[in-house]
Structures are given as structure tokens and as C-alpha cells.
Amino acid sequence: MNLLSTVRRIAVVAPHPDDEILGCGGTMARAAAAGIEVHVIVVTRGQPPLFEQSLVDRIRRETLHAHAMIGVADTHFLDFPAAALDQVPRSDLNHSLSTALSRIEPDLLLVPFVGDIHLDHQIVFNAAMVHARPRTSSGPACVLAYETLSETNWLAPGVTPAFIPNVFIDISTTIDAKIAAFSSFETQVKPSPDERSIDAIRALATLRGATVYRHAAEAFVMIRQVG
Amino acid sequence: MNLLSTVRRIAVVAPHPDDEILGCGGTMARAAAAGIEVHVIVVTRGQPPLFEQSLVDRIRRETLHAHAMIGVADTHFLDFPAAALDQVPRSDLNHSLSTALSRIEPDLLLVPFVGDIHLDHQIVFNAAMVHARPRTSSGPACVLAYETLSETNWLAPGVTPAFIPNVFIDISTTIDAKIAAFSSFETQVKPSPDERSIDAIRALATLRGATVYRHAAEAFVMIRQVG
Amino acid sequence: MNLLSTVRRIAVVAPHPDDEILGCGGTMARAAAAGIEVHVIVVTRGQPPLFEQSLVDRIRRETLHAHAMIGVADTHFLDFPAAALDQVPRSDLNHSLSTALSRIEPDLLLVPFVGDIHLDHQIVFNAAMVHARPRTSSGPACVLAYETLSETNWLAPGVTPAFIPNVFIDISTTIDAKIAAFSSFETQVKPSPDERSIDAIRALATLRGATVYRHAAEAFVMIRQVG
Amino acid sequence: MNLLSTVRRIAVVAPHPDDEILGCGGTMARAAAAGIEVHVIVVTRGQPPLFEQSLVDRIRRETLHAHAMIGVADTHFLDFPAAALDQVPRSDLNHSLSTALSRIEPDLLLVPFVGDIHLDHQIVFNAAMVHARPRTSSGPACVLAYETLSETNWLAPGVTPAFIPNVFIDISTTIDAKIAAFSSFETQVKPSPDERSIDAIRALATLRGATVYRHAAEAFVMIRQVG
Amino acid sequence: MNLLSTVRRIAVVAPHPDDEILGCGGTMARAAAAGIEVHVIVVTRGQPPLFEQSLVDRIRRETLHAHAMIGVADTHFLDFPAAALDQVPRSDLNHSLSTALSRIEPDLLLVPFVGDIHLDHQIVFNAAMVHARPRTSSGPACVLAYETLSETNWLAPGVTPAFIPNVFIDISTTIDAKIAAFSSFETQVKPSPDERSIDAIRALATLRGATVYRHAAEAFVMIRQVG
Amino acid sequence: MNLLSTVRRIAVVAPHPDDEILGCGGTMARAAAAGIEVHVIVVTRGQPPLFEQSLVDRIRRETLHAHAMIGVADTHFLDFPAAALDQVPRSDLNHSLSTALSRIEPDLLLVPFVGDIHLDHQIVFNAAMVHARPRTSSGPACVLAYETLSETNWLAPGVTPAFIPNVFIDISTTIDAKIAAFSSFETQVKPSPDERSIDAIRALATLRGATVYRHAAEAFVMIRQVG
Known about the structure:
The structure is a homohexamer.
Chain A (H helix, E strand, L loop, with lengths): L8 E6 L4 H15 L3 E9 L7 H18 L3 E8 L8 H15 L3 E4 L7 H13 L10 E5 L20 E4 L4 H9 L14 H14 L5 E10 L1
Parallel strand pairs in A: 1-2, 1-4, 2-3, 4-5
Antiparallel strand pairs in A: 5-7, 6-7
Helix pairs in contact in A: 1-5, 2-5, 3-4, 5-6
């Protein structure tokens, strides 16, 4: 029995570039290696004055480079303003994200967690769920929420929604590819003991793996699966 | 993508006979039809004076008949005392259930829900989880909890654990087989509006199906999946 | 003992027309038949370009027709923009809804569920609760949240708030009136296996009824009751 | 609208004598004054060597005296061993409690809270729920859980089930009777700042009242109501 | 062992003036008396037309007077519009609050509760948590959420986040100072049985105290502590 | 501000030997080095036929050796039967544990988590909480629950209580001592990728540390703190 073995197309929704690598870079790499078509939708882009244009351009290059390393089939940029999704009419965001997802037609949809501290993550989760409403039989068969270091542990888990994983994907063969891909985000890697450090990423993979007797894993919260 | 398509062997743990039909009779029938080996472990047996021997014997015949209709490969009776599992040393129960499951080696394990009102259900859930500890890489890849009419809605959901399903298995093709199998438990079927009535079983299947745009479904809570 | 028997006036707050029928059409019909004054407040109206004007006009006619069938005493339209409540200053919405409720002076207040997937539902729930703050002894004695097919099961129950009902109102005598009223929303009824189909509505009523040994029921989450 | 106005018979299940006064003494007094028949079932009795016989006898006299003050119609003693319900076969307890409740036929059933620290409370809650299963239409229409000072706040609320009240019964007219009745348990009243002190009882009533704009109230968690 | 004994600087974030007194006035007074530097950040100010200017001016005077009584070292006004934080870009609020907190460098941070009914409270909680992200080792070592009468009990606890306290600070010596300080908000004190009455404040302190065998206490939810 | 700096005496309650090292070995080592008196109460002992006597004897030696390495002041063995606490009258266990804790008089009490898969852990948690009831002002000022690899992640977190930590103790200086102490349990250390492997222990410490910008930490759930 194997969750990935019958998947044809995966869509990962990332509020900001690098969330998708932190959350499911190993899973994407494993899926791509197995011939599954992996798409990433990056919802926001940093915009002046909150973000410097040169930094934004650099991050975009880093993103594409990381995605190439992982084997992402296509990266879709929606270019909503980063750290300002609260200022975007929700119907605009819902429409834009749903249009992108309808083109991809994923059977596995990976979304950020609604309890992440960044409001952009919370909003993107909700927008993705609006698309995933089972109003036909052709939507994604499975929706999983991934965890993002520096986001998922930093709101108030237990008071706000806590990430309590129940799906674990073995990334023993791709943890190194994940770390290499994240390392290519030179602007985003931090030294230990930051949660965005290589040490923390590796520790999380080791821990999530050990919980299910695997050498490395990424963990998810099952949102909905239809079988 | 399809949860059942890579399963080889299913074990369903039933505290009492007919729980397995109410909870996942449609899933079992669909799996059996697809060539998956389906095992049922019935943990308890009614014993005098709490239960009349003639009734107990009759239920056992009904059980085997229902299982034959569903296509169950093998039914395993552990024969612990029904409605008295609180009087059984937990290590005895754990050992016995674990031995049975180790022989079956299921990759999909279906268990009753820990929030069911019957203490036997709560105890059996815990015993099954003890077996499912990931102490090797060969345990069940997926553990799901099923819902049982006349048990799952009757404790105090929201104060005690609530059954909030996130996995839905399409039983459009086997809902009739499920109802036929349950009907063979002549001692257990009740007239409307009892939760153990045919009307209630069909309504639940319709509702769980509609939630995911299917004509009939059985719903589960994901306990743990390793992929 | 009977929850409805001492109620004088009910107010149902509906984010969009038909939510009130799906959620508590049977309860409203039973209450109206018993001489209780039933009011509905429809918070939003579809507005171009998100919604076509001709469709909006038609839905309004359907709403009034359905309410007449149910025996609603008065329907109050607040006309905030549908699917765009996130763009409305919250103090405007709070003020408008509170003004309407203050005129009605209900002793039973029925509101949508805060965990519904539609942001409009979440916002309306909060606005209704602001009005219901017990700042005097004359507010509604009881506030219940109703469930809405195609909304309540489709966010991420368990991660987001789950609808776990603890109040059940017998609608055995009015389930047919409820379905007739919903059927008059010709634009909104969907064929099976959609959650907005007649089959799903009937299945939900049968299931909620069976849980409490009634032939049909509507279920609610108790928010607050003062006795 | 008034929760008590259509009640005919109340049964309060108390694990130990005085739980019922702490939890719902004011409600019982108000109900009795309104002509409602109020029954109390005391599940356990202290037994040597855990409890001294003379103390046990004295507490029984205090109980009957307190019940007379409150206007209790009848007090039923089941005499299971106090602080030792874990040693009683659950089927015995279920049978005994159910027999007592079947004779009373209450339409309102008040039970201790499942998250109380005392195991006896947890077990009694479950036994009461077994009786309250809606297997006919004649069971209690409403089941509420009450809070008990020195029990309900002392397990690990938030990790174990938390008492989050949503039903408030006005005891402005009977708070003094409640305190007088509790004071008659001379063996059980403690000086401030103990939770079993008169000050704490009065503070709780004032706080629960203020939450709903009443001078004094008892608070409950709605378990199930059928209307 | 004593939570306050090693604290050097406390920052209390108050959505509106008087929240800080209701939530932690006794703790502030005790801390100030012990030589701890206590800062209050008042996030909003009433603005016409929602609030009359003369009232706003008066409340500001009351605030400063109350803070002087309590021994607050400094009060910081951010002057965002009251009851309209939903209209403020979140990045503006986050930036402003974070700037203020960075200047104070508290080791203990007290914030309103995310489940309070007032949207301003929910938003301020999130903004404070954004600042408190552990991106260096110099942030606040402890973050606690306080409860506010007339806010914390009035959303839908149990459906929305419930305030389930696990930290209790003894205010036996300062409950009178707290009540005196709150009384100086002449515009805000209400007569019994309002939750904002002196009776309710005192009852809450007595109850929270009794829960931990103290004569008076303020209760908090632990958000995060690093030791 | 520092949680440990005002602690005088710590008691750690361990259901089985090595739980205390896995859960809080680093904290104990740091506390002992700071001059705090650290006590461990080991509740059970393996007994034939469930456990071989020679193994039990060996584990006891390993325990004492590990405790010496950590700097434990005293180890108290209660010798209840391991994996059979469900067969022990709860009042016996409560009495025995409470007697031991009353002698130690800890101001910081560390207990296993109630959601651990092992029934012994659940029972010990409850027994420790019974002792910790605030019936005087002299009980432990702080009670924290620790997490145990191979126990805490293996029940059904989210359905059963989930370990959602909110207290983090920096063990950067003692993570090596913790691992050395656990390594001395030669019978208990497992190779990767078992949760009881050195790799998993180190990964957990790194992750819990990174969450609060520390190089290593142990995480806890705050049960109750009085300050």
C-alpha cells in the first residue's frame, strides 16, 4: 500500500517561495523521480516598499533553480502582494487560485497549514479549500496540509489549530535533494539554531521518519481523501 | 489516485459481531470484489448470564453468513467476554489481538472509534493501536477508524472524542451488499427510526457520499498513514 | 420537556438565501405551525459582476416563495454584497445586523456555523454573536448554530471548527415542507450526488433523526442558553 | 423561553454525596419550588477501611438533611464503594444506575462532568450516558453535565476534557438555599481559600451569572437535547 | 518557585484601554510593587464618528490615572482606530506593535486572548504573536494570554477557542488595587450583574484563586515559555 | 526570566525506568548542575512472567547508573507491576504515589503525558494529578508533562490528547549528558530509525530547540503553574 503509487499529478500551493520546499520538498522530489507531474503555485510575490525589488528578483531565480533541482514540472506565479493578502478581495484570490488549479487538475493537492502564524498562509489555505470543494467527482482525490518551519510552530498551537500529523511520506531517498534545493535559497537559509537552518530541517525529517520507523519523512495533516 | 488500489490485505477489528458490517461492510465488499484479502477479527463473544447462549450461537451463524456474503476471506474469533472487557487484563487482550494481527499482516487496518459509547470499543481501539506501533517497517501502512451506528454518536461527542471523518471510500457499487449483509443479522436489525435500521444505514451512506460527490460512501478518521 | 414550546419569536440569520432552508427549514415550519413568529434575516445579495442581476432577482422571488411556504412571518434583506463580506467594514455589518435583530427581539436565535467554508458564513456568525452579547437580560435566551449542506462539511473539520451537534429538533412532521420549500429554489437544487440534492437533504434529516430516535430531525450546536 | 418551564421530572446523578449540591443545588431548589419532581441518585458510599463508618453515617444524615432543605422528592442510594468504582464491573454499575433511572423516568438528566479529576466522576458520567442512549423516544429529552468545585478544575483541562459551559440556569432566587444546603454538610465545608468554601461557591455563582447578565447562575455543558 | 521573581520587564498589550486592568491589573500592581518595570501598549483609540471625541479624551485621562494607581512605568498609545482594526493593513499594525515592543524588550509579554469576541482582540493577539516569533534568543521568555470580562466568555467557547487557564498569579495583595484602578474608569464600570461590574471582577479573582488555594488570582493561558 | 532559577526541588514521575531520561533527562541534568535537588519516582517494575527477572534486574542497575550520571539526588521505586497498572486498585496507586511525593515536597513536578499510548502512562498521569490537587498552598507550584519517544506519538494524537508543547527548557549544555545517560540503558537503546535511537533523541532536541532559537531543548505541556 502506497499513497504516491497511484498519483498522476500533484499541485503544491505555496504562499511564498520556499514554503513548498520546507513543507514537501522531499515528497516532490520523490514524486518527480517516480514520473509524477509536480506543479507548484506560488501565490504571492514581494512588492516594494515592503520588499526590495532586487531581493524579490533574486528570490524568483532561487525558486526556479530549486524547482529545477527537485524536478518540478511547472511553476505558476500568481503574483499577489506578499504579507498583504489581507488587503486582497478574497473573491479575487479564490478565482485566481482556482483557475490555476483547474488547469493543472491535480489528484493530490498539498496546501499550507491553516494554523501557521503568517496570515498569508491562513488565507491561502482557505482559498485552496474553496477550490477543493467536492462539487464534482473530478477534484483532487486527496488534500494534505504540510508543515513549514518558522511558521507552523509559531502561532499558538493548542489555542489556534495545532499541526498534529497523521500522514507520513518516506523521503529517505530525497532528504538530501530537499536540503540541496533549500540551500539554493541563499537568501532564506539561516544558521543554527534558527528553524530555517539546515540542522532544523534535517532534525524534523529524522523525527518525522522515526515516528513511523523510516530514516526520513515529511509529515502532513490529512484534510480529505476520497477513495 | 485510489486508496484501495495498492492494498493487498485488510484486517477489520470488530469489538462485537456486526460492528464491522455497520462500519465498513461496503468497503470490505468492494475490496473483496477487487481481489483484496479481507480478514475480520471479532474480539468478544456474548457469555451467560449477560447473554443467552442460544442468542450467542445464533449471532455467530449470522456473522459467518454475513461475512460470506461480503466476501470475507477469514473470520477470527478471540472470544473475550462481551460487555466485560474492562474485566480483562489489558496485557492479555493486547497479546491476543496482536498475535492475530501479526498472522494476518494487513497493510490496511480498520478499527472502531475511540469515542464510541461502548467501553469495549474504546478498549479495542487502544489494543489495536498498541499492535500498530511503528516498531518495524512492516506494520500496517494505514490505520483508519470506522463509525458504528448506535455507538459513535451516543457518547458525548465534542466533550469526548468526536468522529470527524476525513477519509471517504466510495461504496456506490456495494451499498446494497452491505445492507443485505446487515439484514442477515436478523437479531440486530431494528425498525426505523432506530440508528440500527436499514433507513439509517442507507441515509448515512448517502450523506457520507454526498459530502464527496459520490452516491454512497463509508467515512473514516485517518489515524496514521505511511507512504 | 420541549425546546420550542416556550419560544415566542425566532430569528434566523442567513448569509445567503436558502441557507436558512437547508439549515433549519423544518424547524421554522414546525415553529410557524405552532404559532411562533419566525423571522429571517438575509444578510447578503448577489451583485454584479460577481452575480448576474437577473439571477439575483430570480433568487429573491424564490426566497420569498419558499418563506411563504414555510410560514415565515417576515423576511429582512440587509443587502450586503455576497461573497464579498470581507470587503465590508465589520462595524457596518455589526451595526446593521444588530439593528435588525433589536427590532425583532427573538428569544431563539439561529445562526450559521462558524466553521462553514464560506467566509460570509464565518463573518455572519461573528456579527450575530456580537449582537447576542448578554449585556442586558433581554437578549435571545438561546443561540443555536445550524448546519448547511455544501458549506459545513467542506472546510477542514477537526482542524477548523467541526460541527458536532448536541441539539436535535424533531421535524418528522415538516421534513416534506422543508424539501418542498428548498425545491422552490429551482436555481439552487442540484441532482444527486451533490450535497444540495433532495436525496442528501433527506438523508441528513433521517440520520439526524435516527441519532435521537426520531424519524427526521435538524441538528444544531448549542452556543448559549440561559434558563 | 425557559429551559425549566416544561420539565416534569429531574434526575441528578451524584458520584458522592454533596456533588449534586455543589453542581446544581440552586437549580434543584428552583425546580422543586416550581413543582418539578427532583430525584437524586447517589452512586457510591464510603466504605471501611478507606472511609470510617461513623463519618459515612454522618454524611448520609447530612445528605438527607440537605436534600430536605432543597426540596428533593426522593434520594436513591446505590451504595457502590466510593473511590473504588474502578474495581466494580462496569456492567454491574450500568445495570444498577439504569434500573434506578428507568424508574424515575426523568426528562432532564443532570450528570457529573467526564473531565472531573475523580475517576468515580468519569465512570459515573459514562454509566449515565449508557442509560441515556436514545434507543426509544421516551428517554430524557435533555442531558446536561454540571461542574463540581474541587473536581472539575483539577484534572488538566485543555489536555483532558475542559468544562466549557454553554447552558446557564438562573439561581438568583435560590443561591442562598444552595449555600445553606451545602453548609449542612458540616464535614465537607472548608474555609477559604479552598474550592469547597462558601466564598468559592458564591464567587462561582456570581461569575456564571454575570456571564449571562444574571445575579447568580449555575453553568452546564449541553450533552444532548431533543426538542 | 515563582513565575514573577526573575522577571525584569513586563509588556501588556491592550486592544482598548481597560482591557489590561480587567485582564491583569492585579499582576501588574504586584509586579510594579516588586520593582518590575511594567509597560502597557494601548493599541487603539476611539475615533469619531464611532466614538465621541469627548468620551475618548475622558477615557484617556482615566487610563493614565488607573495606570498611575497600578504603578505602570510607561503607557504607549498606538492610536489605531478602535472597533476598526479589520480596516487596517495587517503589515502596518504588525510593524507598529513590533516597533513598540522592540523598544521595551519585555521578558514577560501579556496579550489578549485570541478567542475573545471583539475582532480587535483577535487581531491584536495575532500581531503580538508575530512580534514574539523566536527568531533570536532575545525575545520575551514567556507569553501569556489574559482573560477579559465582557470579551472572553462571549464568543462561542468550545467552538471558537476557549480560555482554559493553566497559569495562576496570586493577587491576594493587589486585588483591591486592581478594583480601585478599574473603578477609576468611571465610564466603563457597570452595575451588577454586568460582567464589567465590581462584583464580577471580585468573583472572578476569588474563583481563580480558589482553584489554586489562593485568596485571589488572575488566570492566564500559557502560550509559550522558554527556560 | 528563567523557569528553573527559583526551583528548589524537582520530582519526576516515571511509569517505567528510562521514561524520565527520554522525557526530561537534559532538564534534570541542568537542574542538578545548578544545585537543584532532583528526585525520580519509578512507579513500576517488570515482573515475571511478563518480564524476565534477569532483565528486570539489569534494567534496575542501568537506571541507577543513568541517574548517577544525570545527578539525580534520589530514586524512589514503587514497584507496581509494569504493563499491568490497569489491574491495580487506583486508590492503592494514588496512595502510594502521593505518599512518596509528600515526602519529597517538590515545587516542580514532571509527569508523563496523558495521551501516551501506554496505559501505564495514562494511569500514572492521573495518579500524579490527584496528588497535585491544590488543597493546600504547599503543593508543587508547577506541573509539566514531558514527552516520551516511542509513547507520545503513537496513540492517535488529535483524536486522543495531542502533545502540543508550550514550555521549552534549554538543554544545550546537557544534551550530551542526556544521550550518555540514555545510552547506559543498553537494553533499551535501539538502532535508527527507531524512535528510541540516539538519532531520534538528538533530532527531537534539535527541533524543540530550534522552535525557540536554542541549540537543544526539551519540550513540555504546561499543566498548571501558580505564581
